[in-house]
From TrEMBL:
InterPro entries: EF-hand-dom_pair, EF_Hand_1_Ca_BS, EF_hand_dom, NECAB1/2/3. One of its GO terms (molecular function) is calcium ion binding. This is N-terminal EF-hand calcium-binding protein 1-like. Pfam families: EF-hand_1. One of its GO terms (biological process) is regulation of amyloid precursor protein biosynthetic process. PANTHER family: EF-HAND DOMAIN-CONTAINING PROTEIN, N-TERMINAL EF-HAND CALCIUM-BINDING PROTEIN 3. Keywords: Calcium, Metal-binding. Residues 28-63 form the EF-hand domain. GO terms for cellular component: endoplasmic reticulum; Golgi cis cisterna. The lineage of its organism: Eukaryota, Metazoa, Chordata, Craniata, Vertebrata. It comes from Gouania willdenowi. It comes from the Eukaryota.
Amino acid sequence: MLSCTKMITMCLQSSKQKHLQLQHQQKEQQNIFHDIFRRADKNDDGKLSFEEFNAYFADGVLTTEELKELFHSIDEQQNKNLDTEKLSDYFSQHLGEYLNVFSALESLNVAISKAVDKTKEVRQ
């Protein structure tokens, strides 16, 4: 039988492990979104204006007016641009079931990049 001290220690270690996994998962999410939003940031200032946001996300699903509403709901301080960190946080909170899909895509992207780099080395 386990003593109370051992049980508490096991619980704390389990909790710490879950916390570390959650931190890793959150970092992975942010990496995914940073990469996506960096592509949308055409002038490379680390922020998206509504024009950049609209150009990137306009896909026929949301109207320009709906995109404007979404942009303003994310831009809480109404400073007319979204930094990629704020945008990453917003979308990370709304991933739901797609988290595993994006994580798999990120892993695939890393694997492809490594393979391409290796091919470049071999050919040179």
